[in-house]
Amino acid sequence: MLLASLSAAACGDAARSQAPAASPSVSHSASPSTISPEELCTRVVAHWSREVLDSHTYGDYQSMGLSNGQYDILRSVVDAARAERKRQGAEAADALIDREARAGCVDRYRSGGPGEGAWR
Predict the structure, then answer these.
(1) According to the UniProt record, where is the region Disordered (predicted)?
(2) Which of 49, 76, 100, 119 has the fewest CB atoms found within 10 Å of its own CB?
(3) Residue from 101, 103, 104 nearest 46 by CA
(4) Rounded to whole angstroms, how far apart are CA atoms 101 and 24?
(5) Average pLDDT, whole number, for the chain?
(6) Residue 55 Cα distances to 12, 27, 49, 73, angstroms
(7) Residue 30, SS3?
């Protein structure tokens, strides 16, 4: 009887140890926040400006995911950053990229952006 009890208990433990572990509780985070067109423009223009500045060549604006207007901002920013890097160094050029990308994008989207406001 003792042997039967031990083997039954052992089988029960084996079954429990082979059962899949409970999945951890998943916490649902808040939905992602949206960013303004100006901020999105600033981020992509600054990113690609740094890439272009380091590579010394301009790529196709569509392959970068930029609009024609954003690409115009990028070219202006990179030209200014190249001059700044020669005068003041890489750190100054990096700061200029952030400032000029933001200024260009704020100006571009001031009246709502393409298809809105004065863009019609």
Answers:
(1) 17-36
(2) 119
(3) 101
(4) 43
(5) 80
(6) 65, 42, 10, 18
(7) coil
Q: What one-letter code names the amino acid at 2? A: L
Contact of 65 with 44, CB cutoff 8 Å: yes
Q: How confident is the model at residue 115 (pLDDT cuts 50, 70, 90)?
A: low
The structure's pTM equals 0.67
Type of residue numbered 23: S
19/65: higher pLDDT: 65
Q: Which two tokens stand for residue 108?
A: 């571009």
* Burial category of 56 from C-beta neighbours within 10 Å (exposed 0-12, middle 13-18, buried 19 and up): exposed
Q: What is the pLDDT of residues 26-56, one digit of tens each?
A: 555 666 789 999 999 999 999 999 999 988 7
**19/110 Cα distance (integer angstroms):** 60
